[in-house]
Amino acid sequence: MPNKALVVGVSGITGSNLAEKLLAEEWTVYGLARNPQAELNGMIPIAADLLSKDSLNIALSELSFTHVFITSWMRQETEAENIRVNSLMVRNLLNAVSPKKTVQHVALVTGLKHYLGPFEAYAKAGTWPLTPVREEHPRLAIENFYYAQEDEVYAAAERDGFSWSVHRPHTVIGKAVGNMMNMGTTLAVYASICKETGRPFQFPGSAAQWNGLSDVTDARILAKQLIWAATTAAARNQAFNIANGDVFRWNWLWQELADWFGIEARGFDGSLHPLEGQLSTDELLWADIAAKYNLKEAKLDRLASAWHTDLDLSRPIEVMTDMAKSRKLGFTAYQNTRESFFDLFTKLREEKLIP
């Protein structure tokens, strides 16, 4: 059977970049979301609600897939609700594709909260891992919806006989509109506001993040690893970290980001300056900027996810990702982090999402 991929969460950063890469490699690609984007030529959109068995059964009953890539989640008020909702989404999906018995591989995208803890206890004392984080670290003794999602995949794999892979990116850098976790675009919007208003480009985070080593994950390299694991026998039934392959410190990258926009950079000054607070009153300002420059998106919260950027940049420890496991098995892709940001900024400007 030819490779037929179902990309779940195709409208997000990870899903959209994965679908684009799969199409370039001549896969048949179905993209599932509540409102799937139609921008990708060749992708077959599927509109469905992962929380509704009926919606999924109606949408998928006549279709079959060889590979399923799960890149979607829904944020809830508590971790208990995150667990209930996000495990249900995975369970409903895998139950819906089960009857055809054509699925060969399921890939699940989670992240470094596997090691750092969920939002309610994120990177707090008692949950700090030894860094760089490694796949063999045991699960934390705390509730985490990533663990619940994994367990749903493991159970369905045991039932239906497919192989699986779990992918744990650091902060994903790539283009998406309406995404819940989008540091790259958030910083681009913040920098654009600073340029328009003359504000300084103030680093919002902690001393540990400003001075410590870090890394990020370009959505394009994540897509490459997802496809590699789905098509490489040695990678079956394993979890993999995924990052660009280089490291940086915000205390020099911040200046380079500011230089790209031609604005004044200010570094860590002894205090946190959360972006949620800095951008909280800028909705009307962004609407004016969008009108002035004829931008495609006038709603600030469709582009900027300040809460998530604050979460990452305020961590009290440095965080890096060990890539030895997938490297040893043959995944050798590399992505320069400067270019991750600059390529994104260029794309956002070309597509009239920032001025």
From TrEMBL:
Q: Tell me which positions the record assigns to the signal sequence.
A: none
Q: Per the database record, which ranges form the PRISE-like Rossmann-fold domain?
A: 66-355
Do you know which CDD domains this protein is assigned to?
5beta-POR_like_SDR_a
Any single Pfam family the record assigns to this protein: PRISE
UniProt protein name: NAD-dependent dehydratase
Give the organism, scientific name. Spirosoma pollinicola
